[in-house]
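Suppose a colleague, Dr. K., hands you the sequence of a protein chain of 118 amino acids and asks what its three-dimensional shape might be. Before reaching for any lab equipment, you can write down a predicted structure in token form. Begin with the sequence itself:
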Amino acid sequence: MVQLVDLEAPCRAGHTVTVWRLGRNRWIRAYNHNTQESYYYDDMLKLMYPKIFYFLFGIIFASWAMGDARTSGFEFGIFWLFYWLLGLAIGVLPSYAIAFWRDLSINRVIKKKSTAIT
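The predicted structure, expressed as tokens, is then:
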């Protein structure tokens, strides 16, 4: 059994295992050539999710929606909070699209670079 950071790939002595990584310490995928089984890092989509874009989209949407508001004080704060939450709800779709595109890009690169451990 080879245990990489957040990824386990069952294998025995003599098996050929190909592993892929992001950066230096993020092992994201393994393939055991003898058993012909693939193992994936389960939280890959969470890792690719653009959290900063998501929250900025909510803030920008709320600021845009409240740009011509004729309210002030507490009422303005309540409406701004409502529009911020609405912006976060709308921002989920492009954020998941970005995460999905990043994941596809990584899978294309995986086909080119690998390290074999015997």
